[in-house]
Amino acid sequence: MAIEWERVGQARFDRIVEALIHRLYDATATVRAVNGRGGDGGIDIVVRQGERLRIYQLKYYPDGLQGRGRRPSIKKSFERAMDHDPYEWILVVPCTLTPGEQDFVDGLTEIRNVQIKVMNRAELDDRLATHHDIEASFARTQDDGGLLEYAKIMNRERDILANGTVDLETRVAALGRVIDDIDPHWTLDFARRGNTIVQTLRGKHPRAHEVSPITISLKGRAVALDGALSAALERVVGFGLAEDLTLPPEAVEQLTVNGPEWLAHQFSNVSVTWRPRPLPLDAGKAVEMAFLSDDDAVIASYHGTLSTYGQGSTGRSLAVDFDGACLQLMMPHDHNAASRLNFSLEVTDRETSTALRAIRLHKRLRIGGRFEISVENRIVCSGIISKDETGDEANELSELIFDLEAVQRHCERYFPVPDEISARERILLRLARRLVDGQCVINPFAKTLRFTLNGTGRSQLLELLGGGAIFVTRPDCPISIAGHTLDLGPVRIFHPDATVDDVYQARAAIDTGDFSGLQLTLRPVENQHYRLILESALANLPPEQPVPATPFTLVGYTEPA
Question: What pTM does this model have?
Fold first, then answer.
């Protein structure tokens, strides 16, 4: 049942929303309610993800924004929040806005260009439906209709946890004692994880499996598994890689547990998850993968840690974690059969230097050749990797990280590889890479330059109105990547042929001699874009020599004019 927002009141509304925002960002961001509730400086709840700041403003207006003073209050809160330079501002209200009310909120962007959203009643109900325990916990503190007293009369008040977690511990312990008394050799440990009850079989003594053996048999259906599941089944069952493998119900005809009567059972229409036990070669040990020349000289080596060393029906497996990458090697028992190698990049949230090292390992594997893998200086496998002639699917990622590392090094601003980057940010990053490499680029986001005149330089302005080349130097060149601002330094903005908008109106104003404050807009001819080059790069070029623009060469990107 949805919360009756008209009845909860301001304080309860604030507490519910605060709990919900904490749940939405519990694993991805830092959430802080200012002064608990009530807000301060235009802020009720702050969500910080790296350098990105979201501000939630809570307004308990269950009947909309039409009441006296409500819109001014929202506008005032918005203006105060802008002092904190947020990435996004979210208005939370327990109602559905009318079109006019929505237009009012959207219009706040005229005050400040910032992303604005509204979390209304429908979204609140939808979010709470996903996190229904929040709704239940608040409903629990309301009038119980005499339920507690009735439970006490029947001596069952512990069933509803009248004394909180003390009663929970008592009931769980009592249930555990019941389970322990079922069998002299086996018991069950149990846990609740969300809505799932997990039961773990545990022997009461080291010889439980001998005295009272338990076996599990699985009968599969004759169905065709999809490619990904079939490959996973071979890795886990065939080679003993320590991955979770889940067989869906359509692949399992019957699962039978044989053992004590209380445990024995046949299951159908179930999914089965397989977790193989690795062989006793400790995980976490130091691993070196060395690439060798024909005369056994080491031409490259990379260090990681052992993840698992397993064995299955088809062969043995070795899994190694390199910082930023994971390698799986599957070696069949049949020595005449070829081994297989899987490699995956995991560079998100790694420093660019770490990510580049993982990418170089990937390129080295694609080159192929002889290799050895040692665990704590003991060679455990060796062989020859065939050269990979297929296309490099990781090439775009490699280019992005190489660009990011070069720009970070130039600006001396370092941060981990972001988990996502927008198309605009990718273009800006390539633009920045070209600039720090000393090249000239076309800025696809710059079609105009606007100037405010101070009333001097009349002759130069009249010459400017005639059109032609334009050159402007800025003392900084900031770009924003994943919430981080990187300043590339002084930059020259230019175009060989630019024109002034409303040239006749501008000329008339200049002719009067009173043109202080006049705004001029200049744009390249034929709807082209301005060019950029760092001032530091100009020092290395011959004077008066034309500087051609270097293309971006990004996949799927159309070069601007």
Answer: 0.57
